[in-house]
Amino acid sequence: MTAANASHAATLAELERAKVSAEAANEAKTRYLVAVSHEIRSPLNVIYGYAQLLERDDTLSGAEVGTIIRRSAEHVTNLVEGLLEISRIESGVLTIRSDLIDIRGLLDHIVDMFRMQAAAKGLTLTLDVDDRLPAQVKADEKRLRQILINLVSNAIKYTQSGSVAVKVRYRSQVADIEVRDTGIGIAAGDLDRVFEPFERGNSAEAQSQPGIGLGLAITRVLASVLGGDIAVESTPGVGSSFRFRIMLPAPMVASRASVQGARITGYAGPPRTVLVIDDDPAQRAILQSLLAALGFVVHTAANGTDGLLLAERTPADIVLLDIQMPGMSGWDVAARLRASHGASLRIVMVSADVHELNIGGEDRSNHDAFVTKPVELDALISLIGTQLDLRWDEAAVPDLTDTPAALPPLPAAALPFLDRLRHLAQIGHVRGLEDALDVFEQTIPTAAPLVMVLRRQLVDLDLASLQKTLDDAR
Description:
Number of strands: 14
Radius of gyration: 26 Å
Strand order of the largest sheet: 2-4-5-7-6
């Protein structure tokens, strides 16, 4: 073969390899987009469905439906954040924060987020926290939350029966967080592969589960970035144990953070003024309703020009400023506000695009904090308190979860009702449980004390405890 022929053959071979690689990439992209669409549609279906029920049925409990919609929205937000995190990691733009975290509240919140999902599969979901774990620790709250959500979500996804247990141990400022399940398990040859992007192992059962295979890949990268590590032990058909170890130092001095179980009702001192500049009327209405209820004087504007005029007429203490608006951008508005009012005016940028902070062009130094949409209202209140150095007024939330030491015995006629309630709890049918409890109380009057306990657990969406109460009542 001549040199020219050899070179031609090599070129053809290289082109063939490039073609195969491109086709594989396109196929992977298609699978990826289909998986993402499927994963996001599930919580969106819950949000859409309950929103329609609210429009049709005036008897629905707003608090109950609100909780369900919020948790589904959190699921969507976490999915989107996961996709953005991959983009940040690939581009090398990943900022690590040092937040002061109510770690016990965070753990409780994450486990509560998945109670309904676990109960629908008949799983027991438990949380066991070491007494030595301090009330507050320092870490990147957003990334820590994401890691814990990924681990608990995966455990529930791959467990068809039995339990998922979250166990937290703490020693020498190091937290050892174990998520153990009784699920399908992972073959020895797949233990490393499950941490690769878009990989979930070779077993048919694992492949049949919904998802895009990014959760554990993101978890391992974030754990490493935060200075921690992830280890897994698993036995096929028995279950898996993921252990996340990370240093979570306690602050030298405890902050004035809101006490767990307390509800903020206002703040001490003279009224403070908040200016909300956002082109989305729904966002303006939500923030005005939330902040006015806490005693803030709230003014709103639909664009940058109106916002600047309003700031001149009614000086504000803090501005919540959207970035993407028609006409003048939020960055331009921030620059003008800073020039006119100085550093005493606190400016918080609010945007659905977290990449806004890393795009060149406008001057990005004229703000004091950045909040992403959808806005987590509790986090926003905490941020405002920090920016304005507020001392919150709090009202303790009564604990409705305590059950009587002994409930009156039930007649045999109550057994079919208990079976019906347990079935509804297993499938997570909240509205059905509400109706069945009404019928139960009307038909078996002596069951009123038990119904009161069950209703409290239903309001908290603690279906695991509700099922246990039903079992104990038999």
